[in-house]
Write a structure and sequence with these properties.
Elements (H helix, E strand, L loop, with lengths): L9 E5 L5 E7 L2 E9 L3 H14 L5 E8 L5 E5 L9 H9 L13 E8 L6 H17 L4 E15 H13 L3 E2 L8 E9 L2 H14 L7 E11 L2
Antiparallel strand pairs: 1-7, 2-3, 3-6, 4-5, 4-6, 7-9, 7-10, 8-9
C-alpha cells in the first residue's frame, strides 16, 4: 500500500486477488501475460522472480510496472529482446490505459510477459505490437477498482445500538469501515471524502440517525478500495 505523500486523491488499480493470467499465440510464439497488484517495487520484482522460476525454460520474461498514487515509479525490461521492443511497449500499454473516458491513471500494477519462441521471427515492429497487445488484452479483462484517499470518522455507541446504526448508515449510502468492540461501546467507522463538507454531512446524519446520542469524530486518512459504479 502506498504510504508516502501524494499529490492526487485517487487512482485506479487492479482489484485484489490472485495474479491474473492471459495468453496469446502470435505466429507460433506463446505470450503469457501475468498481472499483479503491487504497491511496492519489491512486490513488482517478486512477481518477475517468481515467474522466472515457474517458466524457467522460457526464453524471455519481459516486464513493466507502475507504482504509487502519482505513478512516479515506472520501470521496464526487454530481458533479451531487441532494445525497445518489449518492456517499453508494455509500459506504454500500462501508462496509457484509459480507466474511464479520457483518464489514464492505472498504477500499483506489475506486468510480466513470458515468451516461448515459436520459431518464426516477428521483427522489431512485430515484437512491439505483440508485447503491447499482450498487456492490453489482459488489462481489458482484469477487474479494476478505484483507490481513493478518504477520511475515516468514528463514533462510540453502545453495543445494543451499533447494529441498527450501522445498517441505517449503509442504507443511507455511506461507506462503512471496520467496526470494533474494545469495551463497553462499539466503535463504528464511516469513510467519507477528505473534505470538511463531507465530514459535516456525515456528522449530521449520524447525529440524526442516533437520536442525538452519537457524535462523529474525524480521524486520519487511509487509502481505500472503492468499486467502480
Amino acid at each position: 500500500m502506498p504510504d508516502h505523500e501524494s499529490r492526487t486523491g485517487s487512482y485506479t488499480t487492479l482489484a485484489g486477488g490472485p495474479d491474473f493470467r492471459h495468453e496469446l499465440e502470435i505466429k507460433r510464439s506463446r505470450f503469457i501475460t501475468v498481472l499483479r497488484r503491487a504497491g511496492t517495487e519489491e512486490a513488482a520484482r517478486d512477481l518477475i522472480a517468481g515467474l522466472r522460476r515457474e517458466f524457467h525454460d522460457a526464453r524471455h520474461h519481459c516486464s513493466a510496472f507502475i507504482i504509487g498514487p502519482d505513478r512516479d515509479i515506472q520501470r521496464s525490461s526487454d530481458d533479451g529482446e531487441p532494445s525497445g521492443t518489449a518492456g517499453a511497449p508494455m509500459l506504454e500499454a500500462l501508462a496509457k490505459r484509459e480507466t474511464s473516458p479520457g483518464v489514464a491513471d492505472l498504477s500499483d500494477v506489475s506486468a510480466v510477459v513470458v515468451r516461448y519462441f515459436g520459431g518464426v521471427l516477428l521483427g522489431a515492429g512485430g515484437l512491439v505490437r505483440a508485447y503491447s497487445e499482450s498487456v492490453s488484452s489482459a488489462l481489458s479483462l482484469v477487474p479494476l477498482v478505484r483507490r481513493s484517499r478518504l477520511r475515516i470518522c468514528s463514533t462510540h455507541i453502545p453495543h445494543t445500538a451499533a447494529g441498527r446504526l450501522e445498517n441505517d448508515l449503509r442504507a443511507a449510502a455511506f461507506v462503512m469501515g471496520e467496526t470494533s468492540y474494545p469495551g463497553q461501546h462499539a466503535v463504528l467507522r464511516v469513510v467519507v471524502p477528505d473534505d470538511a463538507e463531507a465530514v459535516a454531512t456525515a456528522s449530521e446524519r449520524v447525529l440524526s440517525l442516533s437520536g442525538g446520542t452519537a457524535m462523529l469524530s474525524p480521524e486520519g486518512t487511509e487509502w481505500v478500495d472503492v468499486p467502480f459504479p
